[in-house]
Amino acid sequence: MSAKPVVVLTATCLVWGVLLGITHVLTKDKIVEAERAEINKVLSEIFPSASFVEENGYYRCIENGKLVGYAAIVEGAGYGGKMKVAVGIYVDNTIRGVRVVSHSETPGLGSRVAEDEFLKQFEGKTLERVWLKSDGGDIDAITGATISSRAVVEAVRKGMEELARRFSL
Amino acid sequence: MKVQEFTKGLVKKNPVLVLALGLCPTLAITTRVENALGMAFSFAFVLIFSNLLISAIKGFIPKDVRIPTFIVIIASFVTIIDLFIHGYSPSLYEQLGIFLPLITVNCIILGRAEAFASKRPLGETLLDTAGMSAGFALIIVLISGIREFFGTGGIVIFGHQFLPFILSSPATGMILPPGAFLVMGILLAMLKKMGVV
Known about the structure:
The complex is a heterodimer of chains A (169) and B (197). Chain A is of the alpha+beta class. In chain A, 40% of the residues lie in helices and 24% in strands.
């Protein structure tokens, strides 16, 4: 058996490995920039005229030089897989707004957790009230999508708890 | 160089219907016409260029290691495109996001590399892969059109209302996984019965 197959396969892997490395270096900064722009876009839906200062993955929201709140992007476990939820709170730890950034819930059922009608319920709530009604809180679950609704609630709670700890609210 | 190399991919050797390749993406992403279009374009891009490359260097690849070599080429190609789109066109990336990595495991690409590109000259490879891309696009757009229409009541493509919402109580099941199998199966049965495939 000749050594040619080994040489060719090794060479192929080397060449493509180098190409991948070059591409990574060329695109790395651009990708970080694109992701930051994406996060800014979501957070500006919650705090429309604020600018955001990142601190280890959490955000201080500044409006006209004044601190108006904090925001976090948290991952939760939904019915269909991971979901990403953005939570914005006022400085007194009540909710300013909640957005579902990405999810893979059942279309037409669980996917309704990303709609305003469901998310509006969170506005103005404090941590103690953020539970589904069936669990003793204030949030109406979406009919037929209790697991998805609870996933959002849990992500929001996690976000609020982490923000409270991080900024000692 | 014959034009049949192109047209055979449309019906007679359609990758999905006849060769039964690439079924996973066909079933998984045909929930909306928009998704199918995004998949069809990125798939065509990867299929055509990776197979042209394979056809160009086929003389250097020893038979024993051809499959790992093809896989390295296809996977690297997809990753490079993925990184560039992510960095330079975030809005396109948002649309194609999950489909790009999925292309690596689309067996049509490896299938054509093995069955065609690794044996034929560049010109024929171009025709073959273009035909296969068109055939794949045709089927996934057709299936997603049926599923989106019955599953949501209308068809919206990139924000434009292509078909108005005329069904008042759409069958959500059509855009869930079972709908994919139903539509695919019925379509295949009908085409077989009509003698098309």
